[in-house]
Amino acid sequence: MGKDKQDLRYQQLMERSGATPGDLERRALLHIISGNEELYSNVNNIYDFEENVIITECLEGDSDVYLSSSSRKLVKLAYHLYNGYEASVVDVFSGLDDDNARLAIEAIKIRFNI
């Protein structure tokens, strides 16, 4: 995906969530969602913009939301960066393609202001 398209998506999600530039947790979460086509198309099943909370049910086995294994790993990382949701670095990065690995690393940099 082009950087401009991701930037536009990211800005739209930031506005929709009401996140401020200092909200590093939410910025990291929204960066991951905006940078992955599958996550972006399922954004309303991943994050509740009215309550400003994550929707962990999307990761449960009986969920109606289908996410590929790499998208599930990115959601786990996004949730971990947002509120400490349990995620293993080894599990998250194993099997990610280069684009998704870069997306994950960028989100970590956002979260920790690196």
How would you sum up this structure, described in words?
The two termini are 23 Å apart. The chain has helices at residues 3-17, 24-34, 37-41, 43-46, 69-83, 89-93, 98-111, and strands at 47-48, 53-54. It contains seven helices and two strands, in the order ααααββααα. A hairpin with a 4-residue loop joins strand 1 and strand 2 (53-54). The protein has 114 residues and is mostly helical. The longest helix has 15 residues, at 3-17. Helix 2 (24-34) runs antiparallel to helix 7.
The stretches of 5 or more residues where confidence is low (pLDDT under 50) are none
Q: How many strand units?
A: 2
Percent of residues in beta strands? under 5%
> Number of helical runs?
7
Tell me the structural class. Answer: mainly alpha
First-last Cα distance = 23 Å
Average pLDDT: 93
Largest sheet composition: 2 strands, antiparallel
How large is the radius of gyration? 13 Å
Bulk shape: globular
Q: Which strand order spans the largest sheet, edge to edge or round the barrel? A: 1-2
What is the chain-wise order of helices and strands?
HHHHEEHHH
Helix fraction, binned, reads: 55-70%
Concise structural overview:
The protein is mainly α.
List the helices and strands and how they pair.
Blueprint: H1 3-17, H2 24-34, H3 37-41, H4 43-46, E1 47-48, E2 53-54, H5 69-83, H6 89-93, H7 98-111
Antiparallel strand pairs: 1-2
Helix pairs in contact: 1-2, 2-5, 2-7, 5-7
Describe the structure using short key phrases.
globular, 114 residues, 7 helices, two-stranded antiparallel sheet
